[in-house]
Structures are given as C-alpha cells and as structure tokens.
Amino acid sequence: MPAILPILYCSPSDVYDQIGVEAAQLRLDDQNNASGQRVQTIANAAINDTNISIQALQYPLLRGTNLVFSDAGMDTPIEVTLTSVASVGATTLAVVALTTAIPATAIAIDNGVNVWLAGLMAKACKYATDRVNMFCTNRYDEGSLAESWTVNQWATTIASHWLATRLFRAAPQQIKESYDEAMLELRDVQASKINIAGIGTRTSGWPFLSNVSVDPVYVIRKVRVEAQISEPTPTQYPQAIDWSSYWLLEW
User: Which residue in 66, 100, 126, 211 has the most C-beta neighbors within 10 A?
Assistant: First the structure.
C-alpha cells in the first residue's frame, strides 16, 4: 500500500457534486460489492411520516439516497427517499412523506455509500492528489495547492475519470474532455507556461540578474547564462548554462 497522503486536494463529496450520486454508486457488475450496510427500523412509521427511527448508522447516507425496506411481515417492499444527509451514528432518517406504513424491524440494504464504495472514493481522491502533485510540486507547496479552487477542480476531474474507467470501460465523453483539458493545463503548469492563480510559488519565477553570452560552440540555444557571475536565485524553468565559463574555460 502506498503511504497515506497528508493532504487531499478533493473529497468524495466533490466527486459526487461533479458526476452525481447515481454515477458513483456501485453497479450490478461489481461482483456483489454493492451489498452495503443494513438499515433497520426500530419503531413503526405511519403514513405521511417524514422521519424513520433506525438503528445507528455505521456509514453516512447522502440526500437523495433510495432505500427499499422489506421483511418484518411487509406484504410488498417500500421505497423511501432521504431528504437530507444522515451522518454516521444517526438514529433518524429524514425522508419524503411515506405513502405506506413501515413496521419496526424492517430492513433495507444501502447500495450507495458503503464500505467498499467509501474506500473506492477515497482511493480515487488519493490517486488524483498524487497525480496533481507530480505536475505541480516542483513549483508549489502542497499546502498552497490545497488552498486553490483550480487545483480542487483538477483533482476532482481526475478522480471522476479514474472512477469512470475502473471497470475497463471508456469514460463518458464529458468526463473524458474535462480530464484531457485538466491534464493539458497541468502540463503547462509543470512547464511554467501558466501559473496557478491566487497562490505563490516555491521560488522566484526568474532570477534578479543573469549575465549571458552568445557562444558559437553550441549548435542550438547559443545564448547561454554565465552561472558563475549571475544572481543564483533558482528558476522555475531550465536555463541554458554556459558550461565553458562555468568551469572557467574562457578563451
């Protein structure tokens, strides 16, 4: 297992916001990993009730999650929709007004946010963060990158793309186009063609003073920096060094 990253540039909720809950939820071809936590009622819920009492949740449930309750002597399964987020440890679900009563001890299986999916979402965010770092940490500190909305969008897009292709399928066109655009921008950041707005770089973008000479010995990039007599501030772009003067081989 790779080392745990101290900072993440996006979160599972960012990915949900971009691609929607349904796109992130587990699918039938996920080798039955979609059988998540059991949600069990502990009291009767009558018609028109908007709250259901349940055993404490082990994992959160998102607003809009659909749960289908059955068992407990019910004639037919009843589907309910959450109207607000239910956090870990919650004992009440806020739902759309019930059209059918639900008895105590009825059970529903969460096929959305569960152990397997939560781990998958976390892995996508870690992968995306590491990917952004590969292009940006030569110029920016991780703490500064975490403060940028642009970086957040790049990481969210990369995580969404990884999630969309995890079953060896092509990502939807919209996600693929956003991913390609993000990677192009990241390469431009790495090459110092663009700067990330709102945050500072590790070093100055250019030295205060560089002495240069035109050396005909070189076939290309004949204008060379004489490093020994130039201001030594590190640059964010590769300088063409006059190695002859560097090693004091003047003639």
Answer: 126
For 164-181, the pLDDT digits (tens) are 887 677 888 999 999 999
Strands 107-109 and 212-214: unpaired
Give the DSSP per-residue string, 48-96. Answer: T--EEEBSPPSS-B-TT-EEEEB-TT-SS-EEEEBSS-B-TT--EEEBS
User: What interhelical angle do 173-190 and 115-136 show, nearest 10?
Assistant: 30
Backbone dihedral region of 27: left (phi > 0), alpha (psi from -120 to 50 degrees) or beta?
beta
Give rounded-to-5 percent helix, strand, coil for the chain. 30, 15, 55
Where b means 16+ CB within 10 Å and e means fewer, 97-114 reads ebeeebeebbbbebbbbb
Entry pTM: 0.58
Cα–Cα distance measured from residue 46 to residue 135, given in angstroms and rounded to the nearest whole number: 56
Contact between 147 and 198 under an 8 Å Cβ cutoff? The reply is yes
